[in-house]
Amino acid sequence: MACKKCGACCKETTMRIDISGKSQKDIEDYRKYLSLHACSSFIQGDTLTVLAPVMCSLLGYQEGKGYICSDYENRPEICRKFLCQKAKDVEVLNVNVNDTVKTKEATRG
Ligand code: SF4
Ligand code: SF4
User: Is 84 in the pocket of ligand 1 (CB under 6 A)?
Assistant: First the structure.
């Protein structure tokens, strides 16, 4: 099975912020503010990606099964499109990458 049901993907929130036109000073000040709120961040081009340690309220846990989305059929599109590196690492040895992504997407959370 591709997904390890570890719940890591649902235990934090990711936000992407357009920082084009912002000064280096403003960006560093904002990153300092984020770090004081326990958020990590990194810059890729004009985008600041913020990782906030906020668990999704729909994440559930079942003994013996692990972490599972409690509203899987209605989960947001961003959850459906998420590509899990952990799940890929498990399958990459013997499965086609496209199959891995489909398997992971079918079992996330
Ligand atoms: S999709 Fe990945 S991070 Fe999320 S629960 Fe499955 S293995 Fe863990
Ligand atoms: S909606 Fe479900 S899949 Fe999406 S983050 Fe929440 S628990 Fe995870």
Answer: yes
